[in-house]
Predict the 3D structure of the following.
Amino acid sequence: MLKIQSSKTLEKLPPYLFTRINALKKQAYEKKLDVIDLGMGNPDLPTPSHIVDRLCDTIKHHKNTHRYPQAKGMPKYRKTISDWMLKRFGVHIEPENEILALIGSKEGIAHLCMAYLNIGDYALVCDPAYPVHFNGVLLAGAKTYSMPLLEKNNFLPDFSKIPSKIAQKSKIMFLNYPNNPTAAVVDDNKFWLESIKFCKKNNILLVSDNAYSELTFGDYIAPSIFEFPGAKDIALEFHSFSKTFNMAGWRLGWVCGAQKLIQPLEKFKSFLDYGAPTFMQLAGVAALQGSNLCVKELAQVYERRMKKMSLGLQKLGWKAPQTKGTMYLWTGFPDFMKKEGSFSLCEKLLKETGVALSPGIGFGKYGEGYARISLVTHDRRFHDALLRIEKFTKEAKSE
Ligand SMILES: Cc1ncc(COP(=O)(O)O)c(C=O)c1O
C-alpha cells in the first residue's frame, strides 16, 4: 500500500464544490464557450477606492506594517471593530479581549472546529449550508447532525426536531442569517431567542456566521446575535469584509464574543498563523470608519439584480422568490426537470449554454432540487443568462 497519501479524514471529504465547478468552467472556456459565471459568490465589483488608497499608502509609507502582525489584531483594528459594533448594532464588545482578527471568516470557522471539537463529537449544522460549516467539522474528525432548512419553515431549522441525545452530544451549532445559500433572513426575533435558549439548555457553543449582515434590502436590517439577552454567555459571531466591501480577495474578518469562548481559537491559531497582515487590518479600519454609502449602494445593486433574475426566472417556471438580503437567489428547478438532479442539471446548463450556477446538492442533501445563483455580473449579462436558461428550459421540456 502506498504510504505517502492524504489522511483518512481528508479522503472522506468529496472535492470542494467550487473545485468541481471550476473544472467544468475550465472545460467550457477551453471549448470557447462564452461563460456567464453565476457560480461562486465572488463579488464582481471593485473594492471602494478609499480602502484601496489606504492600503497603498500604508504599504508605501509605513514600512513597519511589512513586519509580522499582532496575531489577535492590532489595538486600532479591534477598537474600530468595537466602535462599529456599537454604532451598527448597539452592542458593547470589549476591544481588548472580545475580538480576534481573522484571515477571512472561512479560516476562522474551520479553525474554530479544530479548536473545539474532539473526534466523535457532534456539531449541529444547517442543511443546506455554506460548505465550511460541515467540512470544518469533518476536518476536525467530528460528526455533523443536519438541521434541514425547508421552504415550508422559511429555511429556518426546527430545534424541536433535534433528538435530545444528539443535542446532549453536540458541542457547536452553526447558524447563518442572512443565509447562504438560501438567501433567507430571520424575520421574527423569537427565532434568535429560541436558539440561545436551546444552546444554553444543552451547553452548546452557538456560532452565528453574520457574513451578510450588511447586504439587506428595503427596510430589513439584520441583527447581531448579541442584541439578544444571554447571547454573550454562549455565542460567537463571525464577520467578514469580503462581501460588505467587495474585499473577498483581501482575506480579512473577525470573530467576537466573550473572552473565554474566543480563547481556544486564539490559542489554536497561535500555532498556525501570524494573523491578518497589518496593512490589511488598517485597510479594514478605513472600511469600517468610512462612509456607509458604498455599502448601501452595493446592497441596492444586488437588490436590483435579484429582482431582475427572480422575475425573469419565475416567467420561465423556475421557483425563484424575491429575497430580503445576501447576493444570492436560491431557485427551485421546474418540477419536470427535478428528477435529473441538481448537479447534472447545472453541469448540462454550463456545457450547453455557458451559464454556471451552483448545484443545490453541493450545499447539502436538502439542497437537492435547487440551484444557487450568485448575482455577480453586469446587468446586461443577466439578460443574456435568462435568454439561455429559457432556451435550456424549453429544450428540456420538449425532450
Ligand atoms: C456564510 C458565509 N460565511 C463565511 C464566508 C467566508 O467569508 P470570508 O471571505 O471572510 O472567508 C462566506 C463566503 O462566501 C459565506 O457565504
